[in-house]
Amino acid sequence: MNLPPLQPVSNSHFYVSGDVTIDPSVAIAPGVILQADQNSHLRIGAGVCIGMGAILHACEGILEVETGANLGAGALVIGKGRIGANACIGPAATIFNCSVEWGQVVPPGSLLGDNSRLSNVQGGGTAATPAAPLASAQFAAAEATISTPAASEPSSDHNPPEPSAPPSPPSNQVLGQEHLNQLLGKLLPYRQSLS
């Protein structure tokens, strides 16, 4: 079976703007944007692989991608920092003004370097705990929606309520436990119970 030859990626499939240095051995997929703002520099080392639609934007300093690093499709790297040698950045990961060590793996969809969500409670400040009022408000709302049978509907026959059996204590059996045990018995026939 003959496969069609691989087409070399030309410069027309990706966009380069500003002070960008690219090693000739870099593999760049279509749709990649390589941009360096004024007074910034973007360096891409040998053997780097940049996936489709990835954006590398150097701003306020030097952004360096070292030898053998892999950036997944849709990865976004903004600011200054360093992607270490042989690091692997997963698809759709965002790296903002921070560095990734050599050989480190960043999972897909990760967000690194975003400090906007950190809460800083120092000094005389107190942290509010809205969880308890919110939970009680949700409980009150749920309690209000539960309707109880009203005596507004008179029934024609008055049968005395039949005595019911006392409620049984809750069982300790977990739903699906039997099926899980059967599955484990088939997958691991020689396993021994720890209990």
TrEMBL record:
<dbReference type="InterPro" id="IPR011004">
    <property type="entry name" value="Trimer_LpxA-like_sf"/>
</dbReference>
<protein>
    <submittedName>
        <fullName>Carboxysome protein CcmN</fullName>
    </submittedName>
</protein>
<feature type="compositionally biased region" description="Pro residues">
    <location>
        <begin position="161"/>
        <end position="170"/>
    </location>
</feature>
<feature type="region of interest" description="Disordered">
    <location>
        <begin position="145"/>
        <end position="175"/>
    </location>
</feature>
<dbReference type="GO" id="GO:0043886">
    <property type="term" value="F:structural constituent of carboxysome shell"/>
</dbReference>
<dbReference type="GO" id="GO:0031470">
    <property type="term" value="C:carboxysome"/>
</dbReference>
